């Protein structure tokens, strides 16, 4: 039976056998006792048939932050490796998350074989070897079990074989990343493959396109291999109402969740206005964006879809638009290549968090200065910091443009005109498709306009595309021309 609060959706097949009790007992030994809801979910994940095969090959969990969902993943991975001798890949979207998970597993197994500082000697005695090289971190056990850690890329973990794959931060998982990772479980030695997906609701503008469809399946007609647990609110409502927090965070009722941390985040997000309120509802209340938009977008799916092409051009002038979000949290980099016949083609090259600062953006620009006519940079303090960094690297002055308000307005108007008149192409990037068809106009100055997201969508990608389109026409620099005197 479920403990309070019950999940808003629980999908599982009936079963009689499960490793759940043994997983819980092992984690007691590892100093990580599990909560009631965590044990319930692990019972589902570890359910097996009479032949010992996992009943649920796909296990998904959409759970708010500060609830302890990662603890279930750690418990299950620990048992798979130490108890069953299986090989596991733990993969996350952000390198910082990968490092944090590695730290938590080292707390259980130690940092090396025969580690005199190991907190749990019983587990450290199981360790054969620890690989600590960056991007190759792994723990190898004497029973043949092993745990590898990876930050997801287009080619992550190719060449390895695993029995079980855990996708942390599953809301950011893309088809392309999964295409690189999933085949590694097809030849696991145990021949008992399973994939675990844990995350929070899909964010506006995210490239992730695997977690939401799995949720839709769970809410519709789930396959007989699917297990799904979800806590969340059906509407944003009053995010400051703390009684609602306990309804969607199963660890609050058990007195484990850090309510003060949630309270602090609530204050910070609410101060950001409507976008912050939506962000808090998604991250801490498990709110999923509705399928239907509350407002009509400026550009329809039909309009945008009609401009899609199969292959991007490889010749013509190239410019980049760089747009930092208003709150400084993300940056979008878009490219525009103008064919010799004058028809521009646009696409998004990068969309990332700003947790790493502007250095990587400067590296991106510097690596392309010899092929692009220029870079249009917009977005408050981060934009100024990037321009300063590029100047410090002696980038050609005419290659970097900081547009004024009139230029930004002109770029946004130019994008809309190009779409309306069919004078633009793209090749159907899911994240860009979503953003373009989920924005409306926002006023700039007296008569101009930019774009703002509908239902919390981050418009940065759309505005980056607009800047790139404007830049390829406005910047006169020719990267192929070399001065005679330097």
In short:
The protein has 486 residues and is an alpha/beta fold. It has helices at residues 20-29, 36-45, 69-83, 95-109, 121-124, 175-181, 211-219, 242-248, 250-253, 259-270, 274-285, 301-305, 359-366, 380-392, 405-420, 430-436, 460-474, and strands at 9-11, 17-18, 47-48, 58-62, 87-92, 127-131, 138-141, 146-151, 164-167, 194-199, 226-230, 317-324, 330-338, 344-353, 374-378, 400-401, 439-444, 448-453.
Q: How many domains make up the coordinates?
A: 2
Major sheet characteristics: 9 strands, mixed
Global outline: globular
> How far apart are the first and last residues' alpha carbons, in Å?
77 Å
Quaternary structure: single chain
Uncertain stretches of 5 or more adjacent residues: none
Topology, please?
Layout: E1 9-11, E2 17-18, H1 20-29, H2 36-45, E3 47-48, E4 58-62, H3 69-83, E5 87-92, H4 95-109, H5 121-124, E6 127-131, E7 138-141, E8 146-151, E9 164-167, H6 175-181, E10 194-199, H7 211-219, E11 226-230, H8 242-248, H9 250-253, H10 259-270, H11 274-285, H12 301-305, E12 317-324, E13 330-338, E14 344-353, H13 359-366, E15 374-378, H14 380-392, E16 400-401, H15 405-420, H16 430-436, E17 439-444, E18 448-453, H17 460-474
Parallel strand pairs: 4-10, 4-11, 5-8, 5-9, 9-10, 12-15, 15-16
Antiparallel strand pairs: 1-11, 2-3, 6-7, 7-8, 12-13, 13-14, 17-18
Helix pairs in contact: 1-2, 1-3, 2-3, 10-11, 15-17
